[in-house]
Design a protein that fits this description.
Shape: globular
Bound molecules: guanosine-5'-monophosphate
Number of helices: 6
Number of strands: 14
Structural class: alpha+beta
Largest sheet: 7 strands, antiparallel
Distance between the termini: 8 Å
Length: about 260
């Protein structure tokens, strides 16, 4: 991973120049951060699992007509994506009270919401991703009202689809965060596409029966068995093969062999 030109390094991923113009290679690290990077750690094999989970979910979403930046998975830790202009807005969709929603309103975690809530946060680590409204987004020129209509529609569609998909494997999709980017074609026409990743790093996933947390909250809250939780999500999605780690193309259990 050293010979290619690095274009960006985030907390959980590195972006490299891709093999063709307009593409990037998205590399998934095992690094984990929480609470605005005040808590740092490593979740062994996380990058391998998230690469695979995100590939699977992006492909499934593309099948139902959600445009995404994903092109193809290259290897255990890397995927080829289209280069997009990231909109600096984190879109959070919530189905059940948890995390900052519970804190902000003094609500009990686990309470189902009567309808899904969509929230926007300004993607800015230095400012600790402050919550924003449509007014801020349009006033500061991060997106137009048309873009926001599109983003809201896609987010709710993604939520509907993922709710069903996870329910089918005994998982409650409590909430999640997505990001969108602008993709331009050769005629300079723009369309918004789903970017970044969808994985247990940016979703809250609870076991349907026991409410056991199967996501990054295990790391954030020091609940232990973090690696196992990520693996369990991959296993239920059918992405883990039985047998020796690393012995099959789709196997995500060989993290130590790939860096
Ligand atoms: P909360 O606002 O409750 O902390 O987070 C809501 C949901 O969005 C959670 O599923 C959380 O994982 C995700 N989320 C919010 N902000 C971020 C972020 O900056 N990074 C990641 N990876 N996920 C986030």
């Amino acid at each position: 991973m050293t010979r290619r030109k690095q274009v960006y390094e985030g907390k959980a991923k590195v972006m490299f120049e891709g093999p063709e113009p307009g593409t990037l290679v998205q590399y998934f690290k095992d690094d984990a951060t929480a609470f605005n990077a005040q808590k740092r750690g490593t979740i062994t094999g996380k990058g391998v699992i998230n690469n695979r989970i995100s590939e699977y979910l992006m492909l499934r979403l593309a099948e139902i007509g959600i445009p995404t930046h994903f092109v193809r998975r290259l290897n255990m830790r890397e995927q080829l994506v289209r280069q997009v202009e990231i909109i600096p807005v984190e879109v959070v969709i919530r189905n059940v009270v948890a995390g900052s929603l519970a804190q902000r309103f003094g609500l009990e975690e686990g309470t189902p919401l009567p309808r899904s809530i969509v929230e926007y946060y300004y993607k800015n680590d230095k400012l600790q991703d402050p919550m924003i409204s449509e007014e801020h987004i349009t006033c500061f020129g991060w997106a137009t009202t048309y873009d926001l209509d599109d983003i809201m529609q896609m987010s709710l569609r993604i939520n509907d689809f993922l709710l069903g998909l996870f329910h089918g494997i005994g998982i409650k999709l409590v909430d999640f965060k997505v990001e969108f980017g602008r993709l331009y074609n050769e005629h300079d026409e723009m369309r918004l596409v789903l970017a970044d990743e969808i994985s247990p790093d940016n979703c809250r996933l609870w076991d349907l029966k026991t409410n056991e947390k199967l996501d990054k909250d295990r790391f954030r809250r020091d609940l232990g068995r973090v690696e196992e939780a990520y693996q369990e999500v991959a296993r239920r999605l059918g992405l883990l093969t039985e047998g020796t780690p690393g012995d099959a193309p789709g196997d995500v259990r060989g993290p130590t062999t790939v860096q």
